[in-house]
Amino acid sequence: MHKEFRLALIQMKVMETKEASVDRAVLNVARVSEKGAEVVVLPEMFNCPYETHLFSDYAEEEGGYTWQKLSEAAERNKVYLIGGSIPEREEDRLYNTSYIFDPKGKCIGKHRKIHMLDIDIVNGQYFRESDALSAGETPTIVETEFGKIGVAICYDIRFPELSRYMVSKGAGVLIFPAAFNMTTGPAHWELLLRSRAVDNQVYTVGCAPARDYDLGYISYGHSMVVNPWGDVIGELNEDEGYLVGQIDLEAEQTIRDQLPLLKHLKKEKYTL
Ligand SMILES: NC(=O)CCC(=O)C(=O)O
Q1: Which amino acid residue places its CA nearest to atom 6 of ligand 1?
Q2: Residue nearest to atom 5 of ligand 1 (CA)
Q3: Are 72 and 66 in contact (CB under 8 A)?
Q4: Domains in the chain, ordered, with CATH?
Q5: Of all atoms in ligand 1, which is nearest to the CA of residue 154?
Q6: Facing residues of 118 across strands?
Q7: What are the pLDDT digits (tens) for 196-249?
C-alpha cells in the first residue's frame, strides 16, 4: 500500500446545464492530474443546482451520462475519482449519490447520502432535502491502493458516529463532497471538519461548489483539507479553483501511536 499521495479538490461552479457542469468537472480532473493528483474529489451536486425542484430533471440512473463521463475521466487521467454527488434515480425514488471510480474507470463504490438536510433556521437557511430525495442506508468505505477511504456527503459530517464508524472499519481518509450554505458555513464548516479530524485522527476533506449568488442555494465554498492533528493544511476561498494537498498516512500513524486515542476508546462503557 502506498502511504503518501496527492489529493485534489475541485471547487467548481455549477452550470445551468448538466452537460456544461460535467464538461467543467472533466476539464478540471485533467488539470489537477497534470499537477500530480492521484485522488480527485468533486463537490456535492456538481451537475445540478442544489434546489429540490430541479433534482428530478437532472437525475440519472446508475451508469447514465454523468457516470460514464466520470468513469472515462478517471481512466484517461489514471486517478481515483470521488465523483462529488449527483441526483440518482432508481425506480420512483431519487437519491443524493456519490460514485467512486478507480484509475481504470471501474466504479468501486457508491454512497447515497444518509442524513437529509431538513433545516429551518430563523433569518437563515431553509432547506428540505427530503421533499425530493430518499435517504441512503449504509456507510461507504472503498478500498484503494492508498488504503481504505470513507466517503459521506455534506450533512452526514454532522453525525460523529458515522465518521467514527468509517474509521473503526479502517478508513485512513474521510472525504465529504459537500455544499454548506451562507448560514451554517461560516458558523460550522471548518469546526466540523476539524472536529472529525481530531476525534478520529484522520485526514478529513470537504469539497464544495464555488459560491454563486445567482443560484437559489448559495454554497459557502471554502473546500478544505484537514490533517489528523486538526490543522487546516489547505483551503480555498469562495471562488472557483482547485487545491492539491499531500496526504501522509505514516504521519497519521505517528499521531495515532503518540496519542493513542482510538486504542483508548472504551466503547463498552458508553455504546449508544
Ligand atoms: N448540503 C448539505 O447537506 C449542507 C449541510 C449544511 O449546510 C449543514 O449545515 O449541515
Answers
A1: 180
A2: 155
A3: no
A4: 4-261 (3.60.110.10)
A5: 3
A6: 128
A7: 999 999 999 999 999 999 999 999 999 999 999 999 999 999 999 999 999 999
Return the C-alpha torsion angle 34, 36, 39, 44, nearest 10.
Answer: -50
Other CB atoms within a 10 A radius of the CB of residue 61 amount to 11
ipTM surpasses cut 0.85:
yes
Continuous segment of H or E residues that includes residue 218: none
Find the length of the chain. 272
- pLDDT tens string 2-16: 999 999 999 999 999
Residue 165 identity (one-letter amino acid): Y
pLDDT score recorded for residue 271: 82
Residue with cell 467512486: 100
Helix (H) or strand (E) holding 268: helix 267-270
| Of 103, 43, 108, nearest in space to 79 by CA | 103
CB 94 within 8 A of CB 129: no
The enclosing H or E element of 112 equals strand 107-112
Of 14, 130, 180, 191, best ligand 1 pocket probe by most atoms within 8 Å of the beta carbon: 180
